[in-house]
Amino acid sequence: MTPPLLDPDEPQPATLVNETGASVFFLTCDHGGRAIPRRLERLGLAEPDTCRHIAWDIGIAEVGQRLSAALDAALIAQTYSRLVIDCNRDPSAPSSIAEISEDTEIPGNRNLSEANRAARRDAIFRPYQDGIAAALDRRAAEGRVSVLIALHSFTPVFRRVPRPWHVGVLFNRDARLAHPLLELLRAEGDLTVGENEPYRVTDLTDFTVPVHGERRGLPHVEIEIRQDLIAEPAGQAAWGERLARLLPDAYSKLRR
Questions:
Q1: 60-71 and 233-254 helices cross at what angle (nearest 10)?
Q2: pLDDT tens-digit readout, 68-105
Q3: Does residue 138 sit within a domain?
Q4: Residue 137: which H helix or E strand, with range?
Q5: How confident is the model at residue 113, as a pLDDT?
Q6: Is residue 160 over pLDDT 90?
Q7: What is the average per-residue pLDDT within 222-249?
Q8: What percent of the residues of the chain are helix, what percent strand, and what percent coil, each to the nearest 5?
Q9: 96 in any annotated domain
Q10: Distance (Å, whole) CA 85 – CA 96
Q11: 8 Å CB contact between 51 and 75
């Protein structure tokens, strides 16, 4: 029998804060943390690799916390590194537990048994995604409106190719909120804004937006902020303030 992945003294896989906040916005950080369960022995990686983007979305949890406070919005954030299991991928997808991330091999992810994969899924992926579902279900039962905002960050350079965007607005089938937010960000005048750049939302590469946004019919958007802009507290505060100003305006345009 495979032992539990997490020891009793290790962090919970997700943190839900301000659940009773008055805002319609419900914030998620699928890649907010970089913790690795003790028994996985850092997946065989050097410590500096666990601090890189391959392990987490640098700066986005702090932006989420500031945005939650500014909007009085609920926020759920993942604690563990996406290298353990990616909480924004269907667990059946090959990229759910990556053996290579960018150009870095992940020794602790090679040749995993189904039991080992299931242990990660049950200890980390399910509690996080079930936590989102349960919180949204409680809001619906209370008659509360929910607008899903999935927060992420991206690297300034990917495989030696610079990325010019300061922020990306991502969507798939439903652009109700994405389009007004794009207009507002572009109107700021100091930003290069990507529409479905540097990524786009798909059923194969994402989980949170397709499952909790699209399937529920909730207004939603995925926001990607370039990491060099939010690596330090000043940038995190600035982006928290900017999004706190623009998201309500974008939502008001959606409702007209």
A1: 50
A2: 999 999 999 999 999 999 999 999 998 999 999 988 99
A3: yes
A4: helix 126-141
A5: 94
A6: no
A7: 98
A8: 40, 20, 45
A9: yes
A10: 6
A11: no
Range of the domain at 77: 14-254
Domain membership flag for residue 1: no
CATH number of 110's domain: 3.40.630.40
The whole-angstrom separation of Cα 144 and Cα 175 is: 22
Q: Which residues contact 192 (CB under 8 A, 6 or more apart)?
A: 164, 165, 166
What are 19-73's pLDDT values in tens digits?
Answer: 999 999 999 999 999 999 999 999 999 999 999 999 999 999 999 999 999 999 9
Q: Is 44 inside any structural domain?
A: yes
Contact 16, 135 (CB under 8 A): yes
Mean pLDDT, to the nearest integer, of 139-145? 98
Cα atoms found within 13 Å of the Cα of residue 71, Cβ hemisphere only: 30
> What angle in degrees, to the nearest 10, is found between the helix axes of 233-254 and 178-187?
130
* d(C-alpha 250, C-alpha 235), whole Å: 22
Residue 2 has pLDDT above 80, yes or no: no
The one-letter amino acid code at 88 reads: N
Tell me: pLDDT of 256 over 80: no
- CA dist 72 and 18 (Å) reads 7
How does DSSP assign 93-112, residue by residue? SGGGS-SEETTEE-GGGTT-
Question: How crowded is the C-beta side of 208, counted as CA atoms within 13 Å?
Answer: 29
How much of the chain exceeds pLDDT 70, in percent?
99
The encoded tokens of residue 200 equal 């786009």
Burial category of 250 from C-beta neighbours within 10 Å (exposed 0-12, middle 13-18, buried 19 and up): buried
Number of domains present in the structure of the chain: 1
